[in-house]
From TrEMBL:
InterPro entries assigned to the protein according to its UniProt record, in alphabetical order: ATP-grasp, ATP-grasp_carboxylate-amine, ATP_grasp_subdomain_1, PreATP-grasp_dom_sf, PurK_C, Rudment_hybrid_motif
Domain (ATP-grasp): residue spans on this chain: 84-267
Highest taxon of the lineage: Bacteria
Keywords: ATP-binding, Ligase, Nucleotide-binding, Purine biosynthesis
Record-level Gene Ontology MF annotations: 5-(carboxyamino)imidazole ribonucleotide synthase activity; ATP binding; metal ion binding
Keyword Iron: no
Entry protein name: 5-(Carboxyamino)imidazole ribonucleotide synthase
EC number per UniProt: 6.3.4.18
SUPFAM superfamilies with a match to the protein in the record: Glutathione synthetase ATP-binding domain-like, PreATP-grasp domain, Rudiment single hybrid motif
UniProt GO BP: purine nucleotide biosynthetic process
PANTHER family found in the cross-reference section: PHOSPHORIBOSYLAMINOIMIDAZOLE CARBOXYLASE, PURINE BIOSYNTHESIS PROTEIN 6/7, PUR6/7
Gene Ontology terms: cellular component: cytosol
Length: 356
């Protein structure tokens, strides 16, 4: 049985492990702070559930393994500076940007990027953290502690946000999941819907863009590309060299989930074209206490991560796969009644999106 070690032991590692069982691939998520070092064998494979990690005895050992797939890609994408440079080098549309260095003045940002610009920490930001808006109307200046640690990019007045996830094997064969419409609230993915017929015309464009990245990096496994839609154009927001929250719906809604695709690719199991089973919805459970009644909602497939519940923390998700009747809306309404009030706008967004 082949063995895949995962750097990190959060929910993504657990979902990779879950998906790998029928493949007869043993997936072992690794706590990077563990005192026990992984017992790596020469034929084993190493992957990661996160794009960045501190140096610990465990990560050092994993990173030395010759079969750490895509090792050089992680650092490149984890730093927004090199990620932006990569997008520019490949000629992929992304919001115009500048490095926030010692001398950059806010006035220069407004002159070159427009009246709204978003500073993003080069590393470590996630779920909307590590961001700072510069607004000309408020004459916002660049705080000193953002210098040499951030990029700044044009604020995009997008129509909506979406993401595409694709997989590539060692021979360069690729498959893509359909574009997924996403709702970010306070920078955190809260719900997603896929596929939507109205986005079909953008699918070839999205696949060509992500395909260029996958081939350009000689990448093996699953990668996610978050985009803004502005009219008929797609602008790349950011990339993630790993399985991604925007494709969690594939667990219930595709013949091969993103987790299975990733493991197949890195372990050298043949890839298969994912068949999408219907219209899919995913709702993230953010700081929401466990509720057994979710499991009784018709059509709902809850996935609980087993983590301690803290405010805003991703503790699970619920997917629905719609087979074409009214049950989806019924199920969503049932769920709405069981979730905190703040979910009202989320479910309303989903119900509007699935009918769009
Ligand atoms: P994170 O790693 O936190 O997901 P993102 O770069 O995806 O960082 O930013 C989080 C959210 O902030 C995005 O989903 C989007 O809603 C908003 N955002 C990011 N960049 C821009 C931009 N250039 N213009 C407008 N909104 C943006
Ligand atoms: Mg993002």
């Amino acid at each position: 049985m082949s063995k895949v070690w995962v750097l990190g032991h959060g929910q993504l590692g657990a979902m990779l492990q879950h998906a790998a069982m029928p493949l007869s691939v043993e997936v072992i998520p690794v706590d990077i702070d563990s005192e026990q070092l992984p017992d790596l064998q020469a034929d084993d494979v190493v992957t990661a559930e996160r794009e960045q990690w501190p140096t610990t005895p465990v990560t050092e050992k994993l990173a030395k393994h010759p079969n750490f797939i895509n090792l050089d890609v992680f650092g490149r994408l984890a730093d927004r500076l090199t990620q932006k440079q990569l997008l520019d080098d490949l000629g992929l549309a992304t919001s115009p940007w500048k490095l926030v260095d010692d001398t950059l003045a806010a006035e220069q940002v407004y002159a070159e990027l427009g009246e709204r610009a978003l500073m993003k920490r080069r590393t470590g930001g996630y779920d909307g953290r590590g961001q700072f808006w510069l607004k000309q109307s408020e004459n916002t200046q660049i705080p000193d502690d953002w210098r040499n640690e951030a990029i700044v990019e044009q604020g995009i007045n997008f129509d909506e946000e979406m993401a595409i996830v694709g997989v590539r094997d060692r021979e360069g064969k690729k498959f893509f999941y359909p574009l997924t419409l996403t709702l970010q609230l306070n920078g955190v993915l809260t719900a997603s819907v896929a596929p939507l017929a109205r986005l079909d015309k953008l699918q070839p464009k999205a696949e060509a863009m992500l395909g260029k990245l996958l081939d350009g990096l000689d990448y093996v496994g699953v990668m996610a590309m978050e985009c803004f839609r502005v009219g008929d154009e797609l602008i790349v927001n950011e990339l993630a060299p790993r399985v991604h929250n925007t494709a969690h719906w594939t667990q219930a809604g595709a013949s091969v989930s993103q987790f299975e695709s990733h493991i197949r690719a890195v372990a050298g199991v043949p890839l298969a074209k994912p068949q999408v089973k219907g219209l899919n919805v995913m709702i993230n459970l953010l700081g929401t206490p466990h509720d057994e009644r979710w499991w009784a909602i018709s059509g709902a497939e809850p996935y609980w991560y087993g983590k301690e519940v803290r405010e805003g923390r991703k503790v699970g998700h619920i997917t629905f796969t719609h087979s074409g009747d009214k049950k989806l809306i019924q199920g969503l309404d049932e769920l709405k009644a069981l979730l905190p009030e703040r979910y009202e706008e989320v479910i309303d967004w989903v119900e509007t999106a699935v009918q769009s």
